[in-house]
Design brief:
Radius of gyration: 17 Å
Helix content: 10-25%
Mean pLDDT: 93
Distance between the termini: 32 Å
Low-confidence stretches: none
Number of helices: 4
Shape: globular
Number of strands: 12
């Protein structure tokens, strides 16, 4: 496994996470995770954080989502970013390709999210969720309409599991090639093996007080899909 460091200082790393890789170990993935690979180069972060399985991780990305991931290098920074994410002081921007032509070029989806009663992996936005129902908000802007698709920026204002995917599916425009949330509207262009979702940009003030803007361009597999649709 290889990973690219976008930015590094004494307090944290910003990694460009490749798709198809689980971020941290869980019951199904005991090895081969991104954080285990990072630990080989940065063993000193082993004790950072609150969960031994997630050292240094202040947020996460789904296995098949690519893009920017932050890793704290000390406990003070971990706590700083934990509070920053919880209090919406980190501006997150994703690039997503949606099935269908979304009506409004800009908008906000405000639908609470809970667990699916049928599948523990799935989240339900709006009515029908179970367990603890949490409020969730996502802003979006259409960058380009393509033939039968909408290429958008999405900014989650809250940090719920699968938030972007669940929100767009709930309004009838699932993420392209999303096997979990598309239902009958599943569309996957030739050559694409995962959902079209990329963590493109993070904006925040660092623990040192510097204003940081990090960007990660679309990876090759997603760029090829856009070129084909154009």
């Amino acid at each position: 496994m290889t990973f690219h460091i976008i930015y590094e200082d004494r307090d944290f790393l910003a990694i460009n996470k490749p798709p198809g890789i689980v971020v941290h170990p869980d019951q199904k993935h005991k090895s081969g995770t991104l954080i285990q690979e990072i630990l080989k180069k940065y063993p000193e972060i082993q004790s950072i954080g609150e969960d031994p399985a997630r050292p240094g991780l202040v947020h996460r990305l789904d296995k098949d989502t690519s893009g920017i991931l932050l890793v704290a290098k000390n406990q003070k920074t971990f706590q700083y970013f934990k509070e920053a994410f919880q209090n919406n002081r980190v501006k997150k921007t994703y690039l997503v390709l949606l099935v269908g032509r979304i009506k409004n070029k800009e908008g906000r989806i405000d639908l609470p999210i809970g667990r699916s009663k049928k599948s523990p992996m799935r989240r339900i936005a709006g009515k029908g969720g179970s367990g603890k129902i949490r409020n969730a908000e996502t802003q979006y802007k259409v960058l380009k309409y393509l033939d039968g698709f909408s290429f958008c920026e999405a900014r989650p204002l809250t940090g719920r599991t699968h938030q972007i995917r669940a929100h767009f599916a709930a309004i009838g425009h699932p993420t392209v090639c999303d096997k979990i949330y598309s239902g009958k509207r599943f569309i996957c262009p030739s050559g694409l093996a995962r959902q079209f979702l990329h963590a493109y940009k993070l904006e925040f003030v660092s623990p040192s007080g510097a204003k940081i803007i990090l960007e990660s361009g679309l990876p090759d597999d997603l760029n090829r899909v856009l070129e084909t649709l154009r």
